[in-house]
Amino acid sequence: MINWGIIGCGNVTEVKSGPAFNKVPGSRLVAVMRRNRALAEDYARRHNVPRYYDKAEDLINDSEVNAVYIATPPGSHAQYAIMAIEAGKPVYVEKPMALNYRECQMINEAAEKYNIPVFVAYYRRTLPGFLKVKELIENGAIGNVRFFIIQLFKAPSEDEKSGKLPWRVKPEISGGGHFFDLASHQIDYLDFLFGPVLKVKSVVLNQGGLYKAEDYVSVQFVFGNGVTGNGTWCFSLDHSSNRDLMEFFGDRGSIRLSCFTFEPIVVISSYGTREYINERPENVQYYLIEQVVNELLGKGKAVSTGISGARASKVMDEIVEEYYASNS
Description:
The protein contains 12 helices and 14 strands. By secondary structure, the protein is of the alpha/beta class. It has 2 domains: 2-122 and 284-303, Rossmann fold (3-Layer(aba) Sandwich), CATH 3.40.50.720; 128-243, Dihydrodipicolinate Reductase, domain 2 (2-Layer Sandwich), CATH 3.30.360. The radius of gyration is 20 Å and the shape is globular.
């Protein structure tokens, strides 16, 4: 039995991940930690978790906990992951894997030293709709893929407009702005489809002036198999411009999907137009957590590891490197 402890039982753990630890066979959630003890107690009560803590080391040292899920903001991922690894406990860490690529390397170096597995919550690698797109591409449904387009546009929140900034736009906590939080999923999925990114060229700006982190990113990607693509992320537009699009073009057709809104997948080719449901499970991390538990039980392999997760962070660091070097 894999007995999980959660470090950082905040919003992401309420529905997306937390309940899945008790639903997956061979898995149960036995302890949670949050720096605010009252909030940790509240979470434990509502989710029927036996124990709660306000210090990460207490949870890690709990003798019943034999695997740790780290769901804090990225700024503390490396610290807590390495603590758990040194205690001999496998780690499942939220994305992005750490504050930057160097911290990802530190986690992986510790994992190798102590022979402890590390997994990263890039769960789109396991979702049925995203697996369907991978299958369609690999089976030649649109022929040879030539290029892709990513467009993710979101309006700033009212808190951001009023100066009440969330941690996601504080680079010292998140690694960057919303680009780090959201584009990390898309960059990891591209890695899943086409392998590691070979090179990137980028334009990174702050256009809205609401915070210091980047709010506009334009990137050209090149992959080792010859596939190229362009991505544009902007977080300072009006709500009327909100957009969530990933589109892949081949020499025999195209595939269109959304990354976050789970719109139907649309395939257009000489055979006509087909649509596929892009399922969003109630607990969206369930399938990946199931894979992680099965690997820990010796029943298979999980598709999102510390090695693959670090590659996404490496690419993001390369994209924003010049921006932060000139704005430090």
